[in-house]
Specification:
The protein is of the alpha/beta class. Helix content is 45%, strand content 17%. β8 and β9 form a beta hairpin. The longest helix has 14 residues. The mean pLDDT is 94. Bound molecules: S-adenosylmethionine. The site of S-adenosylmethionine has 24 residues, from α5, β7, β8 and β10.
Length: 281
């Protein structure tokens, strides 16, 4: 570590082993660690035998905590910034402190690592080329529905974070706003004991979640198919054509013909065909 710097360090989203060697080295060497919930970070640090002093930095004190960081940097000390889980400043505090530190001319050094959205995307098997990270929808139902109406026409896979007590209400509102036919991947408790990754139609999601009380426990990322894929697919048409062709032809040939017949994009039809095969249709 040369110049006193603020290191923005990603921490695990469940499995404590999901932390980089570089992150551990930096956490050991800095003079202080700014943490969202110091009790949660203390647990991680204990696990790795790290004993740096902690500064609380959360959404209610971020500006004043940033001043403490600036003072340390001015005195030649280096500081790490972590949140409770994953990458700081992604649906988490950190951005204000980072902006103030950069404005003061100190180096801000990112240490990449765990992030729930990217973790879910990597295992969803979506063929979407582009995605939009939305984060948390507004909790009040009216505001959530207004927001979903805005997102409805976007041609990108939509990535949401959601709390367990709102997940059924949210997928119900998504189905009402976007239509039942779009695919949704529900990624729950990633990297943890009860990790679950389930793909279905939006219209089936609420019932799937409600079918087992364990399915609505824990932390969720929801990945919802974007508008272009669904509409270019001419929703039901590609599915109906595929249903017939898949009975008679190998998958690749069925996809090629279904795309030619319906005018839908081949990528989208291919994804649909894979899901139909999995559903046994
Ligand atoms: N900064 C974090 C990141 O990089 O992903 C996100 C923090 S945000 C306050 C917490 C939300 O992320 C949870 O409510 C959930 O939606 C999602 N999340 C975090 N850990 C998760 C996990 N292990 N499995 C699924 N979703 C998770």
């Amino acid at each position: 570590m040369e110049r006193p710097s603020l290191y923005v360090v990603a921490t695990p989203i469940g499995n404590l082993a999901d932390i980089t060697l570089r992150a551990l080295e930096v956490l050991k060497r800095v003079d202080a660690i700014a943490a969202e919930d110091t009790r949660i970070t203390a647990r991680l640090l204990r696990h790795y035998g790290i004993g740096a002093p902690l500064i609380a930095l959360h959404e209610h004190n971020e500006r004043s905590a940033a001043q403490k960081i600036l003072q340390l940097l001015a005195h030649g000390k280096s500081v790490a910034l972590v949140s409770d889980a994953g990458t700081p400043a992604i649906s988490d505090p950190g951005a204000i402190a980072v902006a103030l530190v950069r404005a003061a001319g100190h180096p801000v050094v990112p240490l990449p690592g765990a992030n729930a959205a990217l973790c879910a995307l990597s295992a969803a098997g979506t063929l979407a080329q582009h995605f939009l990270f939305y984060g948390f929808l507004p909790p009040p139902a009216a505001a959530r529905r207004r927001e979903l109406a805005v997102l409805k026409t976007l041609p990108y896979l939509l990535v949401f974070y959601e709390a367990p007590h709102r997940v059924i209400a949210s997928v119900t509102d998504m189905a009402a706003a976007f239509g039942d036919g779009r695919a949704i991947t529900i990624a729950r408790e990633l990297t943890k004991l009860f990790e679950t990754i389930h793909t279905c139609r939006l219209g089936e999601a609420a019932a799937w979640l409600a079918a087992d009380a364990n399915r609505i426990k824990g932390e969720f990322v929801l990945l919802v198919e974007g508008a272009a894929e669904a509409s270019a697919m001419d929703a039901g048409a590609a599915r109906r054509v595929l249903e017939i062709l898949l009975r008679e032809l190998p998958l690749k040939q069925a996809v090629k013909l279904a795309a030619a017949i319906t005018g839908a994009r081949k990528n989208g039809v291919y994804g649909l065909a894979l899901r139909m095969r999995k559903e046994g249709k």
